[in-house]
Structure formats: structure tokens, C-alpha cells
Amino acid sequence: MKIALGSDHAGYILKEHVRKHLDNLSYICKDFGVYSEDRADYPDIAFSVSKAVCSGEYSYGILICGTGIGMSIAANKFKGIRAALCCQAYSAKYAREHNGANVLTMGSRVIGPGLALNIVDQFLNTSFAGGRHSNRIKKITEVEAKEINVKSE
Ligand code: RB5
């Protein structure tokens, strides 16, 4: 399972913490930046990670900014991306199980590092339940095809 990881400057420290955790667990993880706390625009990183997930090369994306909100808004512009902002493990579980989320976003100014790792673990260790939830995602995919023009290249 390959994971695309990214943050803006506000999420940089937490992103580094998450990257080390994923490395320790032997996940294959590509860091799409940023690589310092120099100010950066979260959409740039959200777009890179979203494209990587849309391409099929990466199973999941993890994006971190100050609140997690900007990253989720930006990532959800891409067809096929279902980005979920999670502040607790409960949301991460159901983002995967019910919503088939493929991008996790978190806010470094909202949650601490320990909780962030619990959220990441819950997200990566929960499978999509399928069944009635598949039909709901199909509805989203259909409207996406009609209404959204952003292409993942
Ligand atoms: C940066 O100050 C902050 O606006 C950004 O990290 C994020 O929280 C946006 O949603």
C-alpha cells in the first residue's frame, strides 16, 4: 500500500511526525512536501497529492495544514478524491468504512501528535464496508462526472 503525504508550512512538523510513524510501520510513503516551515500555499500540495492518488499509484493520501479544512476543500476538487477531515479516530473509522475516503486531512493546530497517529492508524486499518454505502458513493461519482471539470491529468 503506497501513501502520498503532504502538508503546508503549518502542518510541516506534524507531517514529519506522521512520515516517521509510517516509515516505522514499513509503509511505502512519498513525501510531496513541504520540506520546511517556510510559508506555502496549501492548494499546491493538496493538488500534487490528489493527482498522485487519482493516478492510482497511491492508495491513500494524507494532507495536513493548520485546520485540515483548506486541504480537504482543495483535494475534494479532484474527480475520484474523497477527502475527509478527521479530528478523532471515530471519524477516521467511518470515513473509510462508510465513505470510502481515500484522502485523510488533519489540522496540526487542532489535534496533537499522539491523536494524529491514532487517526492515521484507524484510517489505514479500516476497510470500506461496501453494500449500501457503494450506492451512495456511486451517486457522488455520477454528479462529479457531470458537474466538476477538474481533471487529474
Ligand atoms: C495557514 O496559516 C492556514 O491558513 C492553513 O494551514 C490552513 O489551516 C488552511 O486551511
What does this 3D model show about the protein?
- With 153 residues, this protein is α/β, with parallel strands linked by helices.
- The protein has one domain (2-147): Sugar-phosphate isomerase, RpiB/LacA/LacB (Ribose 5-phosphate Isomerase B, Chain: A, 3-Layer(aba) Sandwich), CATH 3.40.1400.10.
- 46% of the residues lie in helices and 16% in strands.
- The protein has 6 helices and 5 strands, in the order E-H-E-H-E-H-E-H-E-H-H.
- It has helices spanning 12-24, 42-54, 69-75, 89-97, 113-124, 132-147, and strands at 2-7, 28-31, 60-65, 83-85, 103-107.
- The chain has a 5-stranded parallel β-sheet, with helices on both faces.
- Helix 2 crosses helix 3 (69-75) and helix 4 (89-97) packs parallel to helix 5.
- The protein is globular.
- The two termini are 22 Å apart.
- D-ribose (RB5) binds next to helix 3.
- D-ribose (RB5) is lined by residues 8, 10, 42, 65-67, 69-70.
